[in-house]
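Quarterly update, task 2.4: zinc ion-bound model.
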Amino acid sequence: MSLALEQFLTVQPSPENHWRALILFGRNSASYKFALAHALLELTADGRDFVRMEELANPFSKHICRHLATSPKQATSASSKFLAACAQWNDGELSDAALIETTVRYGFNNVIDAFHNIGGSGNGSRFFIDQRLELKGIRVTDELHRMLEAPTASNLNREVESRWRLVETAWSLGLTVPLIEHENDGLLSTRSGNGRITITSCRDALNGYQKGKCFYCSQPISLEPGHPILAHVDHFIPFVLMPILRLNLNGVWNLVLSCQECNLAKSDAVPVMRFAESLHRRNEYLIMSHHPLRETLLAQTGLTAKERVSFIGGSYSNAVNARITQWEPRDPGPDIYDND
Ligand SMILES: [Zn+2]
């Protein structure tokens, strides 16, 4: 396991953050992990301890069908019997019962075994125990139940969906993903041909890498539209400096999520120095999440860690020189990246 990943897991460890490491940092070769994550979150919200494979197969396959309908590539390798069945179901050529039967037989190859693998290791929290051989199902663990009891647990479904959208966009563009940027309406998009394609909500994509907390004061934030603690998308180096600094301040590298209070109080000021270090740390996490954020961050901030440190450092001092006011939250909680 890399040092950065270890830091992500050991600073403020919780089942929620271990789950995030599995979803956000795993090397994906197929989208089955995301479908399984969605199915687990939905089926176990009622507190149950055991899920039969037939029960799991229903939401699991339906999520794959839903994504196949808009993004035909759902794996890096050739299509499988399972994906073919999902495509048939989408075309109305397969019954629900037949889809579930095919899913139980072929759909879970590798994904149940691989779900808990992270950075070459399968250690740490487990969200279910494989009991397919003895009981034809999976046993749900206390870690999963505890995670779902958190007040912001509904964010996790959004984070899975967003990560899935990013990965399938990378596959559909053949992994040569142009830069991902922020649009005015809180969405991330990329260029494709002559136009732009919208990928996902900026909030949903970034929340997990901040462990669901405000980048500046560490208070919990929400991804639910209309929620009183809804996250704000904040330009770390203020957007008004874009013409002066001649930097792409709408790039993902410069976007963080904050609570409303911090966003309004910070306004057009530049944060104090220690937050530039946190930004570098956060960006290294985005790079660990593989395509397409990895490629985007490498292109936007440098190919090596040394180049990226100097990019952030240089951009930050230029911003400080261009802006007299510096800002920090009045009541910062424990640093989410432990940079103190
Ligand atoms: Zn805040």
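Highlight for this quarter: The longest helix spans residues 154-172.
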